[in-house]
Amino acid sequence: MIPSSLDQSGSSASSERPPDRGEEKGGPGGELLTPDDLSAYPIFHEVPRKQLERLFEWNERAVVRRRFRPGEIVCRQGDYGSTAFYIVRGRVEVFITSPIAHARSQKQEGKRGWLSGRVRKFATLLLSAREDPREEEEFRRYIPIDAPIDLAMDEPVGQLHDGDLFGEMTCLSFYPRSATVRAVTDCEMLEMERNVLELLKKQSKTFREKLERDYRQRALDTHLRSVREFASLPDDFLDELRARVELVSYDPGEVICRQGEPADSFYLIRLGFVRVSQQHPGGEIVLAYLSRGQYFGEIGLLSGGVRTATCTALDHVEVVRLRKDDFVALIERFPAIRAQLEAEAQRRIEATQRLTRQVTDLPLDDFLQQGLMNAQNVLLIDLERCTRCDECVKACAAAHDGVTRLIRDGLRYDKYLVATSCRQCTDPVCMIGCPVGSIRRRESLEIVIEDWCIGCGKCAAQCPYGNINMHEFEVARRGPSERMTVPLPVIERKAVICDLCAPLGEPSCVYACPHQAALRVNPREFFFAQGEHARPL
């Protein structure tokens, strides 16, 4: 269900405020405030007057009061921002306009080619999880957004009201907006920049307690029920748990728990991104990037009480911490949950073993510098065989609606070109910063884009090799009037990544090469087998 005030292009009938507020007082719809004005708001009562005055000396636009009429857009999903909004009065609707579906390549019969027989062709479609269930698909009931609520998968619409704060992660870490927010009633809001939000969190005990209380009452349930292992927890136990957990904040770069230390807590992420890594003789290996709604710390608690990995805050992170005694009480009271946690811990351990099995201290500096140690599947082109016919690029484009997912260019190593195509990295930095957590890595280490991708392009921008593309799809959406029954076509974007032409069993780029110059290989296995004579060009 999408709110009915959207026009054919998916935009509100009223235009969105431009990022540049202009030279007018507070910009369009905004009003600059003074320390006296802020002191009238309860959330600023505990902030020392001198700090407020110093704040406004540095930046007179640190806090802007904005008013919105019913139907006006406050912010739009996918847009970048640097501010958070505090609702003084009024009610807003929070929703995701993107279809809840993922991109899927479907095989079609192609025409006959003169070099490689019949050309294989795909049509890229949007399919829901019901239409196209995927192996190892992550259990999910709710979509995490940058607000004190999550949105239901089957109806991604929610409401916020007086006293709610949204846009916290956008403000603190400059991530894209996770959802569109539209005023339902007349609204008054305080739009604040990062230094104001941090000041409130440090100085206003009332503000902090309200955020924690709102989370415990409104979001803790959905966060836990979004985790497969906790989906069956009864309401009475959740009520007990609500009083036991504590919210803990970490600054960027701060270690949450360290490999080898005693395991004393279980963690559920409320805000931010956490890097999970292990130290080995050959160096540090990144095991995973975790985001809102995901958990860590269970392996150490279940197996000997020692941390098996180091978990570090990548940005402003807030976690829900459950102490060891409460965790033990949980799994003793619910043996089925213990069994599920143990099974998940074993899956994670096996995935880590697969990842580290091939780690060797190769004496090839450029191999490491070019990121090949970080890749588990690369497209190589043998330059001694390649005739530059571009059949590999053409085959990829033909297989994916004319949009190629590789470029015949890139780094050179020995006699090979490392083409620009998804490497399925062991350190997938593309996963950092997704505002709705829709990109993940399977236990097979393949990168997957989930159904609730909002098309913001953050993952594509994060990929250091340019290997994620944004694909446009024409989808149907109702127009601005409920009386309209004819769906109106609009264009939505979704992130797509090389799927190795999985339905065919062999990548089209490799299949189409007439000279057998294109290879898909694990670089560590391939180049190690070649021997130390391999050197970069």
Give an account of the 3D structure.
- The protein has 537 residues and is α+β, with helices and mostly antiparallel strands.
- The strands form ten sheets. It has a five-stranded antiparallel sheet with strand order 1-2-15-4-13. A four-stranded antiparallel sheet has the order 3-14-5-12, with no helix packed on it. Strands 16-23-18-21 form a four-stranded antiparallel sheet.
- Helix 8 (324-333) crosses helix 9 (335-356).
- It is globular.
- Mean pLDDT is 77; it is low at 1-27, 112-119, 360-366, 478-486 and 531-537.
| Count of helix runs | 14
Number of strands: 31
Q: Helix- and strand-based class? A: alpha+beta
Radius of gyration, CA atoms, in whole angstroms: 25 Å
Keywords:
5-stranded antiparallel sheet; 14 helices; alpha+beta; 4-stranded antiparallel sheet; disordered C terminus; 28% strand; 537 residues; 24% helix; disordered N terminus; 31 strands
Task: Give the secondary structure arrangement, pairings included.
Elements: E1 30-32, H1 35-39, H2 49-58, E2 63-68, E3 73-75, E4 83-89, E5 92-95, E6 102-108, E7 112-113, E8 117-118, E9 121-127, E10 142-143, E11 151-152, E12 157-160, E13 165-166, H3 168-173, E14 180-183, E15 187-193, H4 194-203, H5 205-225, H6 235-244, E16 246-250, E17 255-257, E18 265-271, E19 274-280, E20 283-290, E21 295-296, H7 298-302, E22 310-313, E23 317-323, H8 324-333, H9 335-356, H10 365-369, E24 378-382, H11 391-399, E25 407-413, E26 416-420, E27 439-441, E28 447-449, H12 458-462, E29 468-477, E30 488-497, H13 508-512, E31 518-521, H14 523-530
Antiparallel strand pairs: 1-2, 2-15, 3-14, 4-13, 4-15, 5-12, 5-14, 6-9, 7-8, 10-11, 16-23, 17-22, 18-21, 18-23, 19-20, 19-22, 24-26, 24-31, 25-26, 27-28, 29-30
Helix pairs in contact: 8-9
